[in-house]
Structures are given as C-alpha cells and as structure tokens.
Design goal:
By secondary structure, the chain is of the alpha/beta class. Helix content is about 35%, strand content about 25%. It folds into three domains: about 120 residues, Rossmann fold; about 230 residues, Alpha-Beta Horseshoe (pyruvate-formate lyase- activating enzyme), CATH 3.80.30; about 70 residues, OB fold (Dihydrolipoamide Acetyltransferase, E2P) (Beta Barrel). The chain contains 13 helices and 21 strands. Bound molecules: S-adenosyl-L-homocysteine, iron/sulfur cluster (SF4) and FE3-S4 cluster (F3S).
Length: about 450
C-alpha cells in the first residue's frame, strides 16, 4: 500500500498553528508523510477558524478551489479540522459534499481512524469536546527553527458575549507544568531560542495549585538564553505576582498582549468583559511601574451592538491614554449561538468601517511615534534571518516584539543575540546598525523586585 501524503493549511490564531503541529505528530506516528504540494497529497486538511464571518468565508472560498483537486483525483480525502468543524459539524458535510471528515479540536487523536474510514467511503464526524484533553503526552511535530509555540491551556470559560471560542474550544483546562518544562528543555537542546506559551486566557492557568506566574518562572529557568513570550492575557486575571515574575526574569519578554475590546464601560459590560476601563488603566499603570519599558498590544472591536459615536470616541481615548505598541482591530461580526447574536446588530456596516479606519489610523500614528522615540537607543535583537526584501540585511525582533532590520555582519546569523543601534523607524519596523554581540542579561541583572 502506498504511503498517505498529507497536506495541511492552517487558519486562525496561534492555537491553531500549535494544534496543526499536534495533528502532524499524531499522523506522523501512524506513518503518514507530509507534502507542501496539494496536488501530491491524498489527504487534504484545513484547520479552520470561526472567530468572524470573514474567516469562515475564506474557508468556503478555499473549499471551492479544492473541489478541483478532488475532481482530478477521486481518491483524495478532504477534512475540516478546528473551530469551524466544531461549530458547523454535520452541516459542513451536508452542505459541502466535497468534505469527507469533520474533526473538532478535542478529537485529533481519532483523526487516523476517521481518515481510514473516509478512504473506505464513509464520511466521519468527531466533534466531542473534552474537559480534560490537553494532548499533554504528544510532542508536536516541528521542523527545525528558532521559535516554537506551546499550548499551555485549552478552551475558555469567559464567555464574552461576542465570542464563539468557548463554544468551539470548550471548557478551560491546563496542561501539566512538568510536561511543558520538559518540552522546553527539548526545544532548548534542539537550538530553539524562543517559545510562546499559548492559551485563550493564560492567566487562569492552574495545574495543581501552580498558577501562570509559577509556570512562567519555571519555563524561564530552563534556559536563560531562550526568550519566553505568552498570549493572551485577560485584564481581569492579570495578577501582581505575574507582573513581578515578568520583571524578575530577563528572558521573560516585556510584552503583554492585553485586549481591551472597547473604551466604554457600558459596552464592556454588554460584552461581559468583567472589568471597567478604570481597572484596565490602573493595571497598565501598575505594570509600567513594576516592569520598566514594558510594551502592550491589544484587540479592539468596532461597532458592537448599540455602540454610539461617543462610545467609539472613548475607545480612541483609551488608545491615546495607553499608547499601545500594536493592535489587532476588527469590525464586530455577529456569531450564531453567542449572547450578542440575540442583540440587534444595529451599527450599520459603513459606520463600523469608518470607526474601524479611525481606530487603525490612530494606532498607526501612535506606533510610529513610539518607534520614532527609539531612534538613538540600542536594542537587544534576536536575529531571525535575512530580511524579507534583501539578503544584504538581517532581520530580528526585540523583546518587545518589534521587527529590527540592519545590514549583514560577518559571523552573525539566525539565533544570535545582537545589540543594534536604531537610526530610523516606520510604524511597523525599526532600522539600525550592529553594535556588538549582546551579553545576555542574567536574572539578577534585572531584579526589579522592591518588596
Ligand atoms: N482569547 C483572546 C482572543 C480571542 S479571539 C482574548 O480574550 O482576547 C481574538 C480577538 O478577536 C478578540 O480579542 C476580539 O477582539 C476579536 N473577536 C472575537 N470575536 C469577535 C467577533 N464576533 N467580532 C469581531 N471581533 C471578534
Ligand atoms: Fe473569547 Fe473572551 Fe474567551 Fe477571549 S476571553 S476567547 S474573547 S470568550
Ligand atoms: Fe479562530 Fe478558533 Fe483561534 S475561532 S481565533 S481558530 S480559537
């Protein structure tokens, strides 16, 4: 029998990218091979996202193209994984005849079984959500590289009224701390330099009394030359202990993604975000005191039901107060099954679009100002490789997640830490010159704890 060749496309958030590596590991253990060429595959999988309608429309468009692959070769199995699989279930198979299997985020262990049945002509659906599945024992299938993702928890119990994630990912559960540390040890031995710990709400991580701050400290201890990042933090659960832990370890990046969603307390309440703007701004102030130089990014939704022009201005106002380094900005998209779906989607599409473009323009201006202020400073950069535009330049990132471009230097390559003096900036990128290889700071150099 010939070996099955699998082609996977991944959409949506980093959790999905991490899940694709788990899926590949499960399939690889069963002898499957992978291909980057869809025409050479006999198993085509799309790991999908449901967070906004346009995310789902993209997948439908893609399924339209993929139909051709199947019409050329009848012996190809097409599968939908991820959040759309969970949300739409059998409708996907009934409406899209090209789809052979539908497998949600907690059923990936059974994927090989579903693929076998599909080859035998039987369509399959596996969409049970689990209270315990964390794929704890599965080492994700990763190519060599510098940067890795690790899901440290799955699901979400927050039920923000606009959000489909609690329905597609199920209840919150945390992965075992020791298994995460072991995985990072292995990544360090393989030469990885950066790990991003992932969860919809990492601050509610809890493994037998170890909270997220404990996890961060344990992961930072593994290898001081390895940067540890994390996302996403919910403003309700970001503890002082966590802030002090970030301050304490130089390899815990001074970068917090802290979605605010809206600047209006009335809208925040309708969204069930469970904090006020006052609480949020206090938190930002406190973090800036405890972690000097910390940078923030956020998520913002424009045009949530009943949002007035004045409330939209409040969002712009919060952006000016916080001065985020970056933001992910979206138009509200009603999602069936969520609480907000029952509210009238009464902000007209054009108004949502205008508000969104005001939000984007303001953020660009702020990002540019922040980056311009860095001209003249020296930043520690982890080199990732050649810049996208030219092999005469190297590109890397600062701990605060900013892209830095500088002319190539003999002997400096991907995986090196270097100090770069910044001499030019745009809203998205810093440019500079190599100064020296950096002396990676140790824990004690950066000890900020005052108490
Ligand atoms: N768990 C993370 C991210 C969840 S999804 C968090 O709590 O922040 C990423 C972002 O998508 C959200 O922060 C929100 O800004 C946006 N989003 C989610 N549902 C949406 C919807 N129905 N319409 C528009 N944006 C949405
Ligand atoms: Fe969605 Fe809110 Fe959970 Fe984030 S915290 S995944 S926005 S329900
Ligand atoms: Fe999308 Fe699911 Fe992530 S809905 S944003 S892929 S958790």
């Amino acid at each position: 029998m010939s070996i099955n060749k699998v082609y996977i496309e991944t959409y949506g958030c980093q959790m999905n990218l991490a899940d694709t590596e788990v899926v590949k590991s499960i399939l690889n253990n069963k002898g499957y091979e992978f291909t980057e060429n869809i025409n050479k595959a006999n198993v085509v999988l799309l790991n999908t996202c449901s967070v906004r309608d346009n995310a789902e429309q993209r997948i439908y468009g893609r399924l339209g193209n993929i139909k051709n692959v199947k019409s050329k070769n009848d012996n190809v199995v097409i599968g939908i994984l991820g959040c759309m699989a969970e949300r739409l279930r059998k409708d996907l198979i009934e409406d899209k005849r090209v789809v052979d299997l539908v497998v949600g985020p907690d059923e990936y262990r059974r994927l090989p079984e579903f693929i076998d049945s599909a080859f035998a002509g039987e369509k399959g659906i596996g969409v049970k959500l689990s209270k315990t599945e964390t794929y704890d024992d599965i080492i994700p299938y990763r190519e060599e590289g510098l940067s890795a993702w690790i899901s440290v928890m799955r699901g979400c119990d927050k039920f923000c009224t606009f959000c489909v994630v609690p329905f597609t990912r199920g209840r919150e559960r945390s992965r075992n701390l020791d298994s995460i540390v072991r995985e990072i040890e292995q990544l360090s031995e393989r030469g990885f330099k950066e790990v991003t710990l992932l969860g919809q709400n990492v601050n509610s991580y809890n493994d037998n009394g170890n909270d997220f701050a404990d996890l961060l400290a344990a992961t930072a201890e593994v290898d001081k030359t390895m940067r540890i990042r994390f996302t996403t933090s919910h403003p309700q659960d970001l503890s002082d202990k966590l802030l002090y832990t970030i301050a304490e370890y130089s390899n815990l990046c001074n970068y917090i993604h802290l979605p605010v969603q809206s600047g209006s307390n009335r809208i925040l309440e309708l969204m069930n975000r469970t904090y006020t703007i006052e609480h949020y701004l206090n938190l930002i102030d406190k973090a800036r005191k405890i972690i000097p130089g910390v940078s923030f990014s956020t998520d913002i939704i424009s045009g949530f039901p009943t949002e007035t022009e004045e409330e939209h201005k409040m969002t712009l106002d919060v952006m000016k107060k916080v001065r985020y380094d970056g933001a992910y900005m979206f138009k509200y998209s009603p999602r069936e099954g969520t609480k907000a779906y029952r509210m009238k989607d009464d902000v007209p599409e054009e108004v949502k679009a205008i508000r969104l473009s005001e939000i984007i323009d303001l953020q660009q201006k702020i990002s540019y100002e922040i980056n311009r202020e860095l001209i003249g400073s020296t930043e520690e950069v982890l080199v990732e490789g050649f810049s996208r535009k030219s092999d005469d330049f190297l590109a890397g990132r600062t701990g605060t997640n900013k892209v830095v471009i500088f002319p190539i230097v003999e002997g400096v390559s991907a995986g090196d830490y270097v100090d770069v003096k910044i001499n030019r900036a745009t809203s998205a990128t810093l440019f500079g010159d190599f100064i020296q290889r950096s002396n990676i700071k140790t824990t004690t150099d950066k000890l900020q704890r005052t108490a």
